[in-house]
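Standup notes, structure subgroup. Blocker cleared on the NAP input:
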Amino acid sequence: MRTALVTGASSGIGRATAIALQGKGFRVIGTSRNPSTLREDQRIGGVEWLALDLEDRASIAACAQAAGPVDVLVNNAGESQSGPLEELPLDALDRLFQLNVLGPVQLTQLLLPGMRERGHGRVVMVGSMIASFPLPYRSSYAATKAAIRAFATAAREELAPYGVWLTTVEPGSINTGISQRRTKYVAEDSPYKAECDTVIAALDRKEASGISADDVAATVLEAVQAEKPKSLYARGSNAPVVFALRRLAPRGAVERITARAFGLTR
Ligand SMILES: NC(=O)c1ccc[n+]([C@@H]2O[C@H](COP(=O)([O-])OP(=O)(O)OC[C@H]3O[C@@H](n4cnc5c(N)ncnc54)[C@H](OP(=O)(O)O)[C@@H]3O)[C@@H](O)[C@H]2O)c1
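Run returned:
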């Protein structure tokens, strides 16, 4: 039986992915910063839990050690952040890059040797379509998701000869409630406040009417089960249409269309 480790399995996409993998016969280990405080409705029958705080290197090392051999790693846990570039506090940027990029990279480094030695492995980075369609007032989040995708894409040919495939799944707007947990940095008297609020309100509306976490989990499953997973999968927010547009239209036009779709009409 293959073992899958899903980070941030206590809610949203991680939880749906843990359930989907279990349904396909995987032994599933889910992580949460604090498994002992999970509510009954967050627990998943048969899923084992490990503590993992991606902001803490020792916690990441302990989690990898406790997990033992892992065949499938889904780097899902993450934080959403917003604010004008000019006002993003450096401490908040440090935290976001540790949580969304460096933590998942450390966990991947710790689990890759076993995958390579066993001649089989899958690592799925849960990115965001915002990396492919960068959006004003989301620069830090877009940068972390572009960074984690680049780690996976660039390293694919290092690991492929060993039967280990890295891939990225970019969700669009997914209705998980992540909007309520988004960290926001914009001053009340900021010259950017009105525009930033417009973009974030549009983002929240799109998330509330987005597709379900189960749909993204199905795409993660597709990537995990593929003999040779593609470099990039996208799901939600009309992905097939907008990625086709991105290939055809000039870069500047795509940036303007993206900003307009989130209420910036100037
Ligand atoms: N929802 C969307 O519209 C959307 C769109 C594009 C991309 N994504 C990406 O998809 C992933 C999942 O999103 P979601 O909407 O399912 O989010 P969510 O419901 O907010 O879940 C986030 C998960 O991350 C875990 N987490 C938070 N901080 C952590 C930390 N410091 N260390 C370890 N785990 C931590 C949380 O677990 P505990 O609180 O139990 O520790 C939780 O299970 C994220 O990477 C997100 O950026 C989401």
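Discussed briefly. The CA atoms of residues 123 and 166 lie 5 Å apart.
Next: hand off to the docking folks.
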